[in-house]
Amino acid sequence: MAESGAPPTIREPSLADALIPLLTLAVSIGGALALFGMQALDGPIQTALIVCCMVAALIALKNGHSWASVQKAGQGALASITSAIFILLAVGALIGTWNLSGTIPTLVYYGIQALSPTWYYVASAVICGVIALSIGSSWTTAGTIGVGLVGIASMLEVSTAITAGAVISGAYLGDKLSPLSETTILSSQMVKVNVYTHIRNQFWTSVPAFLFAAVIFTLLGLGRVDAEGQTELQKVVELDSLNGIYRITAWNLLPLLLLVVMSVRKFPASISLLLSAMFAGILGAFMQPAVYAGFAGEESLGIGGAVKAIWQAMANGFRMESGVADVDQLLSRGGMSSMLHTLWLIMGAVTFGALLDEFGLIKRLINPLIYRAKTIGGLFLTVFASAFGLNVVAGDQYIALVLPTRIFRAEFAKRGLAPQNLSRLAADCGTVTSPLVPWNSCGAFMAAVLGVPTLLYLPFCLFNIASPALSVLYGYTGFKLVKLDTPLSPEPEREA
């Protein structure tokens, strides 16, 4: 028996310890979806995740860990998403002021004229791919250009769910192949390979996966050719509505140009988004005085009314009552307050994942899988299962990217596989699948900014599905696998 005052004995978690939180997650999330449907993300799933955190904490205490250790793990989880919190709040403010100032209506106005419904889905994917490649951020791309493209889709009477899938497919293609992307840099750093070596290796899964997605998006668009006549009539109605409410001019796109310039120059994302939001608010006061006055409840716009309108749009979003349902639905969005449910979701999910990682519950599940993966293909499938599983249970793409690279790095070296194989596989399976999980930080973000529930756009994230499938297939076939000249002795494992 331990002496009085001696530190408690820490016990390794059992298989039951590792499974109980996951079963709790599955039952509670499944129950929330069954009872509340799409409204489950308005609170029930968040509550379920907090309960799962409690279960994981109780298991840690049962195994001898102190409550101080549990608190420290939770604090670390919340510290890790500080950047994401400010990005989400800034995106909410940006959507509000971009709608108020006419930036998004102008994007929609020009987009309706330029984009044909027949090619709309594939064009959305390509546009978002180019933007994300240029600025290195899937979140910024979806939260700006993506919002406009989904808005245009509703007015062209094309599927907003397919459009959201196309936006996400393009955004993640550009994010994966951009040397400016923080997840791309992190993927290469975790396995200690040059970032451009990692990107070249990524081409072999990313480009074929995107070409597959582009073909399917093209076919889906061609299937709408019979609806062209009705869509043309809809175009005229919506264009007249937007032009009657706003002063449509290319000057309204200056906030978008500012955002692109700051992103390319590597300004922090939250600062870039917030500055663009504030600049749009100030610019719009000169360009759209009637809109500002109406929103602020003033007969004519003065400085006080302009400040009130900008402040309200950043805080609670913009609201429009034009009498045209599609226009009102497009423009009545945004505000930092609109992101609070999403933040609640992310905080619960990331804290749960941190507790599972900190107290060895994830390793207890993954280590037996590594032992059973006798072939290279089996090893690749195990990495996929681990990365996607971490997106589900940990709720954060960074956990799903970092942990597999850390856990499997020694095993890849032992089997004579160059580290860039693992960095590509982890990015394909961890980063790219993150928006497919409703309570993951990326899935919650995409659903919040695009206004399309994750489970509706999921089947159309064709790139995000094809990319990990190709990566695992290469493991079974040996195609484009880089081998080491001689297998390396694995480094001793360090505790997480």
TrEMBL record:
Family listed: Belongs to the NhaC Na(+)/H(+) (TC 2.A.35) antiporter family.
Superkingdom, natural source: Bacteria
Alphabetized Pfam families for the sequence: Na_H_antiporter
Localization of this protein: Cell membrane
Keyword Transport appears in the UniProt entry: yes
Protein name: Na+/H+ antiporter NhaC
Keyword field contains Nucleotide-binding: no
Chief place where the protein resides: membrane
GO MF, one example: antiporter activity
Source species taxonomy: Bacteria, Pseudomonadati, Pseudomonadota, Gammaproteobacteria, Cellvibrionales
Bilayer disposition of the protein: Multi-pass membrane protein
Residues annotated as domain Na+/H+ antiporter NhaC-like C-terminal: 170-479
Organism: Microbulbifer pacificus
Keywords, comma-separated and alphabetical: Antiport, Cell membrane, Membrane, Transmembrane, Transmembrane helix, Transport
A GO term from the CC aspect: plasma membrane
Ranges that cross the membrane: 18-36, 48-65, 77-98, 119-139, 145-173, 203-225, 245-264, 271-291, 338-356, 376-394, 455-476
